[in-house]
Design a protein that fits this description.
The complex is a heterodimer. Chain A is mainly alpha-helical. Chain A starts with a helix and ends in an 8-residue tail after the last helix. The longest helix of chain A is centred in the first third of the chain and has 31 residues, at 50-80. Chain A is 75% helix and 0% strand. Chain B is globular. In chain B, α5 crosses α7 (138-150). In chain B, the strands form three sheets. In chain B, strands 6-7-8-3-9-10 form a six-stranded mixed β-sheet, sandwiched between helices. A four-stranded antiparallel β-sheet of chain B has the order 2-1-4-5, with helices on one face. Chain B folds into two domains: 2-245, P-loop containing nucleotide triphosphate hydrolases (Rossmann fold); 250-307, CBS-domain, CATH 3.10.580.10. Chain B contains 14 helices and 13 strands. The longest helix of chain B is centred in the middle third of the chain and has 18 residues, at 168-185. By secondary structure, chain B is an alpha/beta fold. Classes of the chains: A mainly alpha, B alpha/beta. Chains A and B meet through α7 and α8 of A and α2 and α4 of B. The complex binds adenosine-5'-triphosphate and magnesium ion (MG). Adenosine-5'-triphosphate is lined by residues 11, 14, 16, 34, 36-42 of chain B.
């Protein structure tokens, strides 16, 4: 049992440890970065501690993910109920079209309305992260074998019971995949927050671009990549194991 | 008792069911037959309100079905469909126990009931209770579907081609089980099928539908013998109706007392059908059979003349 557990979670734990090590020990790699960036005085980004940046990054992404999940799953459920069916085609279309909209554009549109700071980036991530969740929840619920739904009704389950005991459990793997896509994309996208005054792991990258310091860019990029890998590997293991 | 009074169902401009009236007495086995798209499933699904009827009234035990809460109505009516609709994320045992759990039976009672039903339908507890639907064969899944429909011991069962996907042998054994169950427990059953032999073997009341209307209804033998029109006659098998009728009549009906000329060599059980008797005659090339009782003791004989001619005077 413990062996099984340890085996299951080994990969995320390894990525997580690498991420932590990256935040704590970046300074130890000064020699390496000096070789990458021989012309600059500072080669280790030190304006804010990496751990703090990681914390802010995680916070922004988590808040956006939780909101996007609540709104996305809730909205998709609403338009698959009899009362909301009329909106299903519209919502489905917006969800798939929205994916082709670049996140930078969402951000650019959000700033004039919401000003600088953390709010516009949360809103941008929320809107952008909503789409895969809505799309997958719709696909998951609509993909259920109609005879299963007919039987559920025929046996006398209420619509609430059907939703909780049949539709959501059956759609769960697809919904989870949508959340995973949404979060993974948003971990990268959140870096843009640094351009609108929301500090996170995007700071070293933006600062590196502005000051022409490749070492900074590499540091931010590596930490964001490690974070994405950690979170993605956690999601990969969340899929419900139906049978022993 | 189920009573449909001038029931119609329209989907947009198509009329799926057109003003039908039908009365199924308590304990009666009613089979709906007819060509594809004639409205059999629609009729069935109006009874448990999966489809709301457009016109007319449906009564169950003298009460209009719209006077019950939808879910409460469905929980007291068993429902089994060809595609089974088993929940893929639940085990066999959990699937079967669904309606009793909805009715808030105590867990021990649900468990006992699930075990009882699995035994009844020949599904071994050890082997199947923990399996998931996608680990079952088509026939096993249909048994589970029937068990689930029976779980809360409903007085009424609605079955839409429940044995549709089965091989003839499994199908026949399930038919026998169902017929037996119905006779023993006094269930009222409305059963849709495409298989005329199945309908004739099971029904107390045969209902022939065509384009949303009932063409004829009555006891299978009377429908067979006096079809209302050419459509009913051809649906019931055209020239094959003689064999279908023979399949419904037991040997004992046409048997004669043992004669003095010695007992015939080939035997037939008194409970067998005339159709089986005819088949034995054809196969063995004989014109006389000894009719035996359950202990294989000859109790009479059946001649070919008798078999084919008893309705005309012998
Ligand atoms: N939900 C629906 N919407 C529109 N038309 C429907 C609907 N359900 C059934 N129909 C139509 O009603 C008619 C009767 O359908 P029904 O399913 O009752 O036929 P059936 O006798 O069960 O056929 P089969 O033997 O093929 O199962 C068909 O013409 C069908 O197209
Ligand atoms: Mg049908």
């Amino acid at each position: 049992m413990t062996d099984h557990w340890a085996g299951r979670w080994r990969v995320p734990v390894i990525w997580g440890l690498l991420l932590l090590a990256g935040c704590l020990l970046m300074g130890q790699l000064e020699a390496l970065f000096r070789w990458v960036e021989p012309d600059s005085r500072d080669v280790i980004f030190s304006r804010v501690d990496f751990l703090v940046l990681l914390g802010r990054h995680l916070l922004v992404v988590s808040v956006a993910a939780v909101l996007a999940t609540l709104i996305g799953v809730g909205g998709a459920i609403a338009v698959t109920r009899p009362g909301g069916r009329d909106f299903l085609p519209l919502v489905a279309q917006v969800a798939s079209l929205g994916q082709t909209f670049p996140p930078v554009a969402v951000l650019a549109l959000a700033v004039p309305v919401l000003g600088f700071g953390t709010l516009p980036i949360v809103v941008a991530l929320l809107l952008y992260g909503l789409l895969p969740i809505v799309r997958n929840t719709l696909a998951g619920i609509e993909g259920i074998d109609p005879s299963v739904r007919e039987a559920a009704r025929g046996m006398g389950m209420t619509s609430g019971q059907i939703l909780r005991q049949v539709e959501l459990p059956l759609a769960a793997p697809v919904i989870l995949a949508g959340i995973r896509t949404s979060v993974t994309i948003n971990i990268a996208t959140a870096a843009l927050g640094a351009t609108v005054g929301s500090s996170n792991l995007g700071d070293p990258i933006i600062s590196g671009i502005v000051n022409g310091n490749t070492a900074y860019i590499v540091q931010g990029a590596v930490l964001i990549a490690l974070l994405a890998l950690t979170v993605d590997s956690v999601f990969a293991r969340l899929a419900p194991a139906r049978r022993a | 008792m189920i009573e449909l009074i001038n029931i119609s169902k329209r989907f947009g401009s198509t009329t799926a069911v057109d003003s039908i009236s039908l009365k199924v007495e308590s304990g009666e086995f009613c089979c709906l037959v007819g060509t594809s798209g004639c409205g059999k499933s629609t009729t069935l699904r109006m009874i448990n309100r999966l489809i709301e009827h457009s016109d007319g009234e449906i009564h169950i035990d003298q009460q209009p079905i719209r006077s019950f809460k939808e879910e409460a109505l469905r929980r007291r009516i068993g429902y089994a469909i060809q595609s089974t609709g088993l929940f893929p994320h639940w085990t066999v045992a959990r699937n079967i126990g669904l309606v009793p759990r909805l009715l808030k039976w105590p867990k021990s009672k649900v468990d006992a009931r699930v075990e009882e039903l699995m035994t009844l339908l020949g599904l071994s507890m050890d082997e199947f209770a923990g399996k998931y639907p996608d680990q079952l064969s088509g026939g096993q899944a249909q048994r589970v579907g029937v068990a689930r429909a029976l779980a809360a011991d409903p007085d009424i069962l609605l079955m839409d081609e429940p044995f549709g996907a089965l091989d003839p042998i499994t199908r026949e054994s399930l038919q026998l089980e169902l017929r037996d169950l119905q006779a023993r427990l006094g269930k009222t059953i409305v059963f849709v099928t495409h298989d005329m032999d199945e309908a004739l073997a099971l029904a107390d009341r045969l209902v022939v539908m065509h384009e949303g209307r009932i063409m004829q209804q009555g006891h299978p033998l009377s429908v067979l013998r006096e079809p209302a029109n050419d459509f009913v006659a051809s649906l019931l098998g055209g020239e094959d109706r003689g064999l279908k009728e023979a399949a419904l009549l037991p040997v004992s009906e046409r048997m004669m007392p043992l004669g003095t000329g010695g007992v015939a060599r080939e035997r037939i059980d008194q409970g067998a059908s005339l159709r089986e008797a005819l088949s034995v005659m054809l196969w063995r090339r004989v014109e006389r059979l000894a009719v035996v009782d359950d202990d294989d003791i000859p109790i009479g004989e059946l001649s070919f003349r008798r078999l084919v001619g008893a309705r005309i005077h012998d």
